[in-house]
Structures are given as structure tokens and as C-alpha cells.
Amino acid sequence: MKTIFLAVFICLFQNSSCFLPPKFQWKVIDFTWANQSRKAAIDSGLYVAENNMPTGLARWREKVFVTIPRWKRGVPSSLNYIYVNGSQQQPLNPYPSWADAVLSDKDGGISSNSTVVSTFRVHADRCDRLWVVDNGVTDMSRKNCSDAFAYIPDMGSNAIIVYSLRTNEAWRVDHHYFHFDPHAGTYKVGGVHFYWSDGVSSVALSQTRKDGYRDLYFHPTSSTKQFKMSTKLLKNKNVPSEDIFNGVVVVGDRGANSQATACDFDHQSKILFYTQLCKNGVGCWNTEKLFTAENNPVIISDCNLLEFPNDVKVDQEGNIWILSNRQSRFLYESMDFDQVNFRILTAPVSAVVQGTPCERTTVFGKALSFVKRNKSGSKQSLTN
User: Fold this and answer.
1) Residue 76 lies in a domain
2) Is the bond preceding 96 in cis, omega lying within 30 degrees of 0?
3) Domain tally, the chain
4) Which stretch of DSSP H or E encloses residue 40?
């Protein structure tokens, strides 16, 4: 049965068209209410259905966590979950509970120190912990879950915040590559034109290298370039600024209109996945290959199902998860709540990359890629 399932997906993803039916979809977001609390929340303004837009997701075991930032009034719960095997339009469950979700009044009063105020992205790590930040990834030893670091991009101030769980300290890292590219600030998504000057907004960690550190892949939202730097530079809060300045590598350019809001790294296939806003889809890059426009294909695309792909994640079972939310309409125009507006799609990674440049490289292919990399490096050094 599994073989047939994969074969079907391989056929469906030819030419990057998206015939994958949504795993979950909603016209408006609703929640699991107790008794008459839903009506009371509507009457008081604590719940305005049209003001709830999901922006982030993370799959953990039988749950899919979904975030809803409080960008508008009437969001009763910012951190929520649904069940993987639940219905397609199931209501969201506040996490960890309603008591930790609801603000004390419609003007945003905090009920207690444990109140979850406004979440944008969420990440479930290998140690079964849920990290809730505006955005970011976690880095930890497989043998010691307490020795963990979180890398949190702050696109508003063009910086990356590093947090050490062991020492409970945080520090700021700055670099001019964290800033947006003015030439990549214009967008058209869902028929809506807009301009963003968002800096670094998305990060992903590679597998552990021989030196014990990882590469942190990152990019500003308003940019088409991909960058990376070693976590060796980030984990040391006293590292000289000159080392930070010289330690960022320009991996390459994805090509025109390839701005991305989110990315994630699949450690099994060594593929970096990222959203493609202006193309209503998801792209990928096999990190064992050269970074070129040809090696960064759009593997899934659909102007309806994937209008404004906002987040992408790969779970520990090798499945890709994509959330689309028509955010440009939500922010700058109006949404038709008689139509489906929010979707979550999922498929095996092996199926979506089958037959694309992101497919796993053979032994011969790896050798050829190594030769090409060396030639490319030699040419670059000669021209510098």
C-alpha cells in the first residue's frame, strides 16, 4: 500500500502542479469552546472570527501545532493544536489550556505570567519540547537536551538573537547581510501588490559537521539570496565582531521573484525547503549540489491552494507540511469568508522531490558535484 501511495504522489507532482488535497482547511478559524463561552466571547469582542489567521505550524506525534498572532483584536488563543487524524475542518484547541490562552480583556490585558500572548512560529525539537518564538530554530546535542541553543531572527531590527538554555542567557548578533534587499521588496500575491522591507526572517540548521558545529542557513524575506554561517560563531557571545563579519557566506541566488518567508532543513535527505511567495509554492535545494537557479526548482505550486505559502516544516517521519493563508488579502484588502482561506498540506518528502534536481544524489552524482564545486571555487578565486 505504501508503494502505491508514493507512486500516486510522484505522478501528481509532475511539472510542479499541486494536485495534493489539503489535509486541513478552513473558511474561518474556530476553537473548541466550553458550554456558552463562544457566544459570550463574540458578544464581548474577545473572539472575532474574521481576525484569526494562522501563520505557523509544527507537527509533533499525533498533534499539529498552529499559531495565530494577535495582529488584530478578537484572537482568543494564539498557540493551538489540532489532531493529525482529526477531521479536515476541526476546531483548534488552545495550548496548553484555555486558562493560558485568553487575555483578561479585549484590549490585551495579560491574565497571568503563563499567558501565551502572541505567537508567530513554533518548533518541536527531538527532545519533545515545544519552542514558541516569533521565529527560529533550536540546536542541541543528541546526548544532552539541556545543552540547547535557539537562533531567533528579528526581521524588524535586522538581527539574530541567540538564546542558551543551559545558561539562560541571550545575546544579539548583527550583520549587514541580515538586512533586506531593496530590489526584492516588491511583491504580488493573490492579485495584491505590496512592498516589504523585512530583514532576516527565516533560519534552518544543517546536519552536524565534522568539527561538531552546524551551518545556519538564513535569508531575509525581501531577498532572493541564500546565506549561511557556522554556529561556532553564534554560540560564543564574546566572538569578535570581525569574525562575525567575515564568517557569513553568500551561498547563492535563487532567481527572480523567489522571496521566501520560511524554510526548513530535512536532515535525512539534506534538502533545504523554503516557501515561494510570489510563485504560490514551495522550492527546494539539495545541499549536496551547487546552489544555482536550476537546482532551486519550485516543486509544488498552486495559485489557489497555496496562495501565500507562509510556513513550511519537515517532521521527524520525513513528511513536509505547508501552511497557506492568503495573508496579503488579510492585511491589505479583504477576504471572502465564504471561501476556503486557510490550508495545511502534507506529503512525503521523497514524493515531492521525485524527478526534480532536489532528488537524492547517487554516488556518481556526488562525485560529479564535488568536481563542479571545486571548478567553480577555482574560477571564483581567479576572478577575485
Assistant:
1) no
2) yes
3) 1
4) helix 37-44
Q: What is the CATH number of the domain that holds 342?
A: 2.120.10.30
Query: What is the rounded CA–CA span in Å between residue 235 and residue 149?
Result: 8
The whole domain housing 173 covers: 2-29+137-383
137-140 β-sheet, strand order: 137-140, 148-154, 159-164, 169-174
Look at residue 372 and tell me if it is in a domain.
yes
Inside any domain, residue 96: no
Q: Which long-range contacts (CB under 8 A, 24 or more apart) does 312-315 make?
A: 312/262, 312/263, 312/264, 312/273, 312/274, 312/275, 312/282, 313/57, 313/58, 313/59, 313/264, 314/264, 314/265, 314/266, 314/273, 314/349, 315/59, 315/60
Q: What CA–CA distance (Å, rounded) separates 39 from 103?
A: 17
- Distances 199 to 21, 137, 364 between C-alpha atoms, Å: 33, 17, 39
Query: How much of the chain is in helix, strand and coil states, percent to nearest 5?
Result: 20, 30, 45
229 close to 248: Cβ distance less than 8 angstroms: yes
Q: Is residue 371 situated within a structural domain?
A: yes
Distance, in Å, from the CA atom of 204 to the CA atom of 206, rounded to the nearest integer, reads: 7
Pairwise CA distance, residues 243 & 155, whole Å: 22
The one-letter amino acid at 319: N
Q: Are 21 and 8 in contact (CB under 8 A)?
A: no
* Whether 213 contacts 233, CB under 8 Å: no
- pLDDT tens digits, the chain, 384 residues: what are they? 444 444 344 444 445 555 688 999 999 999 999 888 999 999 999 999 999 999 999 999 999 999 999 999 999 999 999 999 999 999 999 999 999 998 866 555 666 677 888 999 999 998 999 998 744 456 655 567 888 999 999 988 999 999 999 999 999 999 999 999 999 999 999 999 999 999 999 999 999 999 999 999 999 999 999 999 999 999 999 999 999 999 999 999 999 999 999 999 999 999 999 999 999 999 999 999 999 999 999 999 999 999 999 999 999 999 999 999 999 999 999 999 999 999 999 999 999 999 999 998 765 555 555 555 565 554 444 444
pTM above 0.85, yes or no: yes
Distance (Å, rounded) from C-alpha 202 to C-alpha 264? 9
